[in-house]
Specification:
It is a single chain. By secondary structure, this protein is of the alpha+beta class. It has a single domain (4-138), classed as Alpha-D-Glucose-1,6-Bisphosphate, Chain A, domain 4 (2-Layer Sandwich), CATH 3.30.530.20. The chain has 3 helices and 7 strands.
């Protein structure tokens, strides 16, 4: 079983502009979740959300910043749990690659052990990404 989600998107914005949407709590909240993120190595933080009816996931994701290279790479743990007490530990890595006409943004979400978690998170990232695009593209108008 593949235990990693990989996705790549392209934006016309510079790496600096894309970086802001990955590191500023108020911008992260627009497309992902409420959070108390700080772009500091070793910083512990949480994403919080209201679980949808029927969801197995508890509305808190505990995280810790593992790596931070401004405008190029950010990684953090992504530790969640389910209502039946199952805990999953994974890692999210964002890589920004400068291109002539914008930024390629790569996501790796690794460490899953249950297929259902991979499928749910992959679909979740797709939904979040639509919101990310809407918000970042609204800034260039």
């Amino acid at each position: 079983m593949e235990n990693e989600i990989k996705k790549t998107w392209f934006f016309e914005q510079s790496p600096n502009e894309v970086w802001e949407y990955l590191t500023k709590p108020e911008l992260i909240e627009q497309w992902l979740m409420k959070n108390n993120f700080q772009p500091i190595l070793g910083q512990k933080f949480q994403f919080t959300f209201a679980a949808k009816e029927g969801s197995k996931y508890v509305g808190v994701v505990n995280c810790e910043v593992l790596e931070i290279k401004p405008f190029s790479k950010l990684s953090y743990t992504w530790d969640g749990s389910t209502s039946d007490g199952r805990i999953f530990n994974s890692e999210v890595t964002w890589t920004l690659v400068s291109k002539d006409n914008g930024t390629e943004l790569q996501l790796s979400h690794d460490g899953f052990t249950v297929l259902e978690d991979i499928l749910n998170h992959s679909g979740g990232w797709d939904s979040c990404w639509k919101r990310f695009e809407e918000h970042i593209n609204a800034t260039k108008k």
